[in-house]
Amino acid sequence: MFYRQAGDFKTTYRGDIQTFPLRQDRIAYYLMLAFAFLVVPFVINDYWASAVLIPFLILAIASLGLNILTGYCGLVSLGTGGFMAVGAYACYKLMTAFPDLNMMIVVLLAGFITAAVGLLFGIPSLRIKGFYLAVATLAAQFFLVWLFNKVPWFYNYSASGQINAPERTMLGFEVTGANAEPAVSYLFCLTILTVLALIARNLTRGRIGRSWMAIRDMDIAAEIIGVNPLKTKLSAFAVSSFYIGVAGALFFSVYLGAVEVGEVFGINQSFLILFMIIIGGLGSIFGSFAGAAFMVLMPVLLKNIMVGGLGWPTDIAAHIEFMVVGGLIVIFLIVEPHGLAQLWRVAKEKLLLWPFPH
Amino acid sequence: MGARAAAQSIDQGAELLRVDDISLSFGGVKALTDVSFDVLRGEVRAIIGPNGAGKSSMLNVINGFYHPQQGEVWFAGSQRRNPKPHNIAHQGIARTFQNIALFNGMSTLDNIMTGRFTHMKQNMLMQAFWRGPAEREEVQNREKVEEIIDFLEIQAIRKTPVGRLPYGLQKRVELGRALAAEPILLLLDEPMAGMNVEEKEDMSRFILDVKDEFGTTITLIEHDMGVVMDISDRVVVLDYGRKIGDGTPDEVRNDQAVIDAYLGVAHD
Ligand SMILES: Nc1ncnc2c1ncn2[C@@H]1O[C@H](COP(=O)(O)OP(=O)(O)O)[C@@H](O)[C@H]1O
Ligand SMILES: [Mg+2]
């Protein structure tokens, strides 16, 4: 009744290929952006920033990155945590070696370094597929964590073996370190996420995105229309690793401030991001967001209900959380492999027709 | 001059493709033995023969999936040396598969847009930015794709995921994807297999229209002898990997070796 396509016909192809062809969707999108940039920073507090918003923003970047590789190009990776660690350590080394370097540049450089490492580890993927590729990325995961633990140069020979983010400012405001304002950290991450999401959208709607999906869906057919499989897979690895590296850099510098690599960027992190894109929707930008939001919010919600509301012990609550996540993964894989994004699309299609389904 | 431009400059009726003494085997299985034939610019060249005769293998040789142990492939006046399929696409050769090979996760429109790949040049930076050159290129190519969609009369399924389409329409979309490349040589592997009479008529009409309207040279594999006789200019007959006949449909139809090997054996 209220959600309508009528009167919103596309008269140009340019209109038809825009991100939100429906005017109502477009308005909703701008409203949300305005809210995120203009309202949230004024009402944000420490709890919301550290429990929900900042992890959501950063993990959404990682989930966009993995979705490019796995959802769009069809290459499964279990090395996300390891590549986030590359971003984090690149960030740390850059911050300590060049104290005056602008933080935005540090984060971007960390992304590029991770992209280069991703390319390197992507090369085996040119020969192997499916299960074997997953195993190869798993090897990369363990190798990278081992490397950062083992070589003291990476943690500047600190006694603890940890890396700690020094204080850095952005436009005069502290964005990392103990005195960072939640609003500043939030805006910093939000800006990066917004730009990276736009870029992901642009890449996936054009020639490169179609070549990724072509390789994913039917690689021999992709080849006969001119797609070079090697170049295409490597480009997916590079772009994906860039996103994941940026996420790792932010996770370390802005969110946690101090990192012990095995704990933060272990295999659990790889699975968490993988679950995000499965639940959110493979091959969907919206799904990357939905999955990240879901996986960040759900534990907070469950904990608030079970521990805060019902007064259950925390360890039981934690077990139940595991079970809920596991159950949901199974349900999504069986019932709706395209995840929340597909549910959302179906709901919108229904809404377009409502209340007259014919 | 690139191979595509070279092919484009070839006169109608002159040799576009020639395969010379091609032999191909898989382990002990000889799929092709000393096969030679040519394809002239602008003609419809059919390859016929019983199942397992080596027809699909021949197309796979032409578009670079298989590299024959012996023999030469000449395209647009130069000999090819074990090129990759994706290089061959850039030379102006497109094809469809015997078993439909569409991109099932994409819509009809995106499948056919993907067929424009060799005509799109914007680099990753431009695409990341989108506004400007990348968007312009997208729109220009979309216009070409819409022409193909109109030509194949599939406007109604433009946004439908191809996995949901019935078989006949999937075949048509696959033809659309190949046409989107604006190929100089189009290879069709059993484009009418599994179709009913009406669908076959549609497909025959499309193939002839492609030849007439776009001047595309076509090499097709087909089992239905009626269709082959109707739409092809010349026919190659393969049997057990060897060429046993070559000529106009009439010549082939009256050739005793062909009748024995193929026509006599009935249509499977
Ligand atoms: N990739 C392959 N590996 C092994 N044998 C193959 C392969 N491709 C084709 N063949 C064999 O080559 C012969 C010709 O097959 P094909 O070209 O598909 O015949 P047609 O298309 O005429 O039915 C068959 O005996 C087939 O088993
Ligand atoms: Mg065949």
Written description of the protein model:
The complex is a heterodimer of chains A (358) and B (268). By secondary structure, chain A is an all-alpha fold. Chain A has a domain at 46-266. Chain A is 73% helix and 2% strand. Chain A has helices at 13-16, 23-43, 46-72, 80-97, 103-122, 130-150, 182-205, 207-217, 219-224, 229-256, 261-264, 267-280, 285-309, 314-335, 339-353, and strands at 163-164, 169-170, 173-174, 258-259. Chain A has a two-stranded antiparallel sheet with strand order 1-4. In chain A, helix 5 (103-122) crosses helix 10. The longest helix of chain A is centred in the C-terminal third of the chain and has 28 residues, at 229-256. The model of chain A has no long low-confidence stretch (mean pLDDT 91). Chain B has 268 residues and is of the alpha/beta class. Chain B has a domain at 1-92 and 222-268: 3-Layer(aba) Sandwich (Rossmann fold). Chain B contains eleven helices and ten strands. Chain B has helices spanning 3-8, 55-62, 85-90, 108-114, 124-129, 133-151, 167-180, 197-214, 225-231, 249-253, 256-263, and strands spanning 15-26, 29-40, 44-48, 70-75, 78-79, 93-96, 185-189, 217-221, 234-239, 242-247. In chain B, strand 9 (234-239) and strand 10 (242-247) form a beta hairpin. The longest helix of chain B is centred in the middle third of the chain and has 19 residues, at 133-151. The radius of gyration of chain B is 19 Å and the shape is globular. Classes of the chains: A mainly alpha (358), B alpha/beta (268). The interface between A and B is large, with 32 and 41 residues. Bound molecules: adenosine-5'-diphosphate and magnesium ion (MG). Adenosine-5'-diphosphate (ADP) is lined by residues 26, 29, 31, 49, 51-57 of chain B.
What is the mean predicted local confidence, pLDDT of chain A? 91
Largest sheet of chain B: 6 strands, mixed
Number of strands of chain A: 4
Strand content of chain A: under 5%
Mean pLDDT of chain B: 93
Counting helices, strands and paired strands, the structural category of chain B is alpha/beta
Going by helix content, strand content and strand pairing, the class of chain A is: mainly alpha
How is the largest sheet of chain B built, in terms of strand order? Answer: 6-7-8-3-9-10
**How far apart lie the N and C ends of chain B?**
45 Å
CATH topology of the domain at 1-92 and 222-268 in chain B: Rossmann fold
- Contiguous low-pLDDT stretches of chain A (5 residues minimum) are none
Oligomer: heterodimer
Largest sheet of chain A: 2 strands, antiparallel
Q: Helical content of chain A, roughly?
A: over 70%
> What form of chain A results from the Cα inertia axes?
globular
How are helices and strands ordered from N to C of chain A? HHHHHHEEEHHHHEHHHHH
Largest interface comes to: A-B, 32 and 41 residues
Radius of gyration of chain B: 19 Å
Please report the number of helical segments of chain B: 11
